[in-house]
Amino acid sequence: MNLDRFFDIPSDLQHSWAGLIGLHLREALLPVLAGLLLALPLAQLCVRFRWLYPPVLGVTTVLYAVPSLAFFVVLIDYTGQTELTVMIPLAVYSLVVLVPAIVDGVRSVPQETLAAATAMGIGPVRRYLQVQLPIAVPAIMAGLRVATVSSISLVSVGALIGNQGALGNLLAAAQKYDRPELALNSVLTTAALAIVCDALLVLLRVALTPWMPSGRRPKTAPRQRPVPQGVTR
Amino acid sequence: MNVLNFVQAFFSDGAHWHGYDGIPQRLLEHVQYSLLALALAAAIGLPVGLLTGHTGRGGNALAFIATAARALPSFGLLVLIVIVLGFGLLPVMIPLVILAVPPILVTTYEAVRSVDPSPVDAARGMGVRESRILFQVELPVALPLILSGLRSAAIQIVSTATIAAYVSLGGLGRYIVDGLYQRDYEKVVGGATLVAVLALVTLAVFWAAGRLAVSPGVRRR
Predict the structure, then answer these.
(1) ipTM greater than 0.85, yes or no?
(2) How many helices (H) and strands (E) does chain B have?
(3) Does pTM top 0.90 for this prediction?
């Protein structure tokens, strides 16, 4: 291992180290955003129509179990060897983590709170946006953290379908040029990105929920279903 | 439906049912890797989670370890370890165990910690020893949540054990990786279907384990 050449990225990757980080963040975070935008209405439907939730959970569990590499390879047929092929499965995995998190968060809002909001003359839409969602924020953020961290670590697998793995491409380069320091760079940088994004989400949660004691949950918090943790594959 | 045709073609091909690359053999290998990784992860995560949950201390340290372990990319870790250590079973087990420990650890800790304190206090007031409080009061109540942590760890292991094929081991990932390089989508889809089915079987096993192991009094809540 030659640590002097830690940041010496082979030119065939066509990106600097910082460029790879930017690419990696885009490939990892856009799918999480897409997953969140899809998960919010889907979760609301599941809250509204209770019978819908078990089948949705079943389908998402099956999708979650499909290995990312297989997902990528199957999609090549439709979207080619592009970033989109990596981003679609990541969006699906995010969706799978976020839907139960949001449903359980919204459901954990106490009936009295909802009744109070209704009694104050707040309509259903405003009640959802201004009462239910804010109270569900801790649960949603817990789901977002898991989705973000796993998405960041899964992007690397895209290296297997033709240089679509951003920082993961360093792994292929490490093998091709027999330079282990590039693999170390890939693992450490990816892990650092995941930890930084995770920390930012924690800060965001603290900022969004000023009524909660920062850091730890109060002991009386309603029992939440644990969201699936860490989907690194 | 393109994908369904692939699935049908894969499973109706007799050649996929025999020999060292047959479905039974690959399935067996996959189950072996998964069970070994789950056992190792449980051997690390369960005792630590039970102990920290019982004492209620070390929660922050635990959360930090879990976050760090979750942040490590399994695939990158696998490639790095193979470059450093060479091929074998160990390079596959390390990422799988690192993947599975956080959900087991965190859920077990949360499960034991969130047990209703009144029966625990009652037991302590009756002079029950701490170890018996943990195993006879807290553990039965926390069991459903602990099992759910083990379950999500098991499902992730089953779907991630496919990476074993990337470093020349067997398992169902063989079909996916070989299919990728042979441009044989039928194989890829077939392998993915098998992994998804195995994950569903895992869910069913945990559901059955929950029915058998969780006391009826706890289940009714």
Answers:
(1) no
(2) 11, 0
(3) no
Return the residue in B4, B65, B79 with the most chain A beta carbons within 10 A, the one to mutate for interface testing.
B79
For residue A233, being part of any structural domain is answered with no
In a domain, A195, yes or no: yes
The predicted-structure confidence for B38-89, as pLDDT tens digits, reads as follows: 999 999 999 999 999 998 888 888 888 888 888 888 888 998 998 888 888 8
Q: Which domains does chain B have, with CATH numbers?
A: 26-219 (1.10.3720.10)
Residue B27 DSSP one-character state: H
Which strand (E) or helix (H) includes residue A129? none
CB within 8 Å: B103 and A228: yes
Number of domains making up chain A = 1
Is A90 part of a structural domain of the chain? yes
- The answer to whether residues B73 and A191 touch, using CB atoms and an 8 Å cutoff, is yes
Spatial separation of the C-alpha atoms in residues A163 and A168, rounded to whole Å:
8
Chain B residue nearest residue A197, CA to CA? B71
CB contact under 8 A, B76 and A198: no
Q: Compute chain A's Rg from CA coordinates.
A: 20
**Chain B neighbors of A195, CB-CB under 8 A:** 67-68, 71
Domain harbouring A50, CATH code:
1.10.3720.10
- Chosen for mutation from A73, A170, A197 (greatest number of chain B CBs closer than 10 Å) is A73
The parent domain of residue A70 ranges over 15-208
Residue A91 lies in a domain: yes
